[in-house]
Amino acid sequence: MSTVLPATSENIRYGAELIRAGRLVAFPTETVYGLGANAYLADAVAHIFEAKNRPTFNPLISHIADIDFLNEYAHTDDRVLSLAKHFWPGPLTLVLKRKDMSPSLDLACAGLSTVTVRMPNHPVALNLIRASGVPIVAPSANRSQSISPTTADHVWQSLGDRVDLILDGGPCSVGVESTIIDLTGKQVVMLRPGGLAREDLESFLNEPILLSHGNPDLPSSPGQMLKHYAPTHPFRINVNMPEPDEFFIGFGDIGVTAPLNLSPSGDLCEAAAHLFDYMHRADEQTTYPKIAMAPIPEQGLGLAINDRIRRASYRK
Ligand code: TXA
Ligand code: MG
Fold first, then answer.
1. Are residues 170 and 247 located together in one domain of the fold?
2. What is the pLDDT of residue 307?
3. Of 188, 4, 200, 236, the residue nearest 90 (C-alpha)
């Protein structure tokens, strides 16, 4: 079957089967095309980063089709719910405090204690999410650093066979990514300007919105990352032979016994899918006072894994 198919009901159902099975499906939203995967399957989420050649694990936007679901996923309050009811479906993305702490969501959330959610205003996207029965995480469906795709052909040109199916729903009407606001603090902070104007948000909230001066593509600025990732135990990386007081996380065929191995077969996608969960587990155990991790090859998803563990092992 060809990778690009018109977004008919039958093909949307087929796309939903693929999503449930852990495959990648690109689909139209009103802003740009998204590269979608089942939010609860870390291995599928790892394939998103691999397909995009993303050198870091950025937190991904979970796309949902039902506001009621938000309460299971994130901590909500009146401000969150009123914004969602007013602006959804539409180009507004909310960064919220994460409620669903299942480890399978860790990679989608890049190990953070926040979860990022939006309800797209596009019938194909909404039908795909409903038919899948799970939130669909989706960054823009292009290779890292290249221009965001607003047609199925852009997706094909950028990703080709790296995606299992591209649902063609015609050109996107908004054409720029969603506006992202952080609602985890007292003040609303805009992390990325986008398809919904700041003025519209301010007049609805009746208060000014702060503009973040960070780079929206690097929410993981070292300071922030250190706070969120640094295990409480001292953490050493690139270790071939752990010390007796180190909880060792292996990778590949390491020749020493390790309580956890990111991927015994040396598969970087599998390693990425396990990374945050294993780091949590290593930090929660109390038998060893320190943590060490085997070397991870600096290729493919290894770049993103090394980026994260370098930050996590950093000590001032
Ligand atoms: O319009 C859109 O938002 C499109 C469509 C497909 O929905 N999606 C999109 O996703 O633009 P992406 O991954 O290309 O951009 C999302 C941005 C990234 O820069 C990510 O770092 C940031 O949002 N982001 C996501 N969650 C965050 C969080 N918890 N804190 C800070 N930044 C976050
Ligand atoms: Mg993008």
1. no
2. 85
3. 200
